[in-house]
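Hey team,

Filing this mostly as a record. A colleague (T.K.) asked me to run one chain through the structure pipeline before their review meeting, and I want the input and output archived in the tracker in case anyone asks later how it was produced. No errors, nothing strange. Just documentation.

Input sequence:
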Amino acid sequence: MVHDLPTGSRRIIQKASGYKATIKSGVVTFKDDKATGALPGSLIRGEQRVA
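Output structure:
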């Protein structure tokens, strides 16, 4: 359990292990259970209200 949401709310996380690699958008993001530091892609947000 971590409390890392913007409002300090909690969420349950589960780490995976045993994967050789995780690939997103053709870029390796995890290799042998370790993050590569690569962050391909972009944040997708819903419609934003104008103040």
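Quick notes for T.K.: Strands lie at 21-24, 27-31, 34-35. DSSP finds no helices and three strands in the chain.
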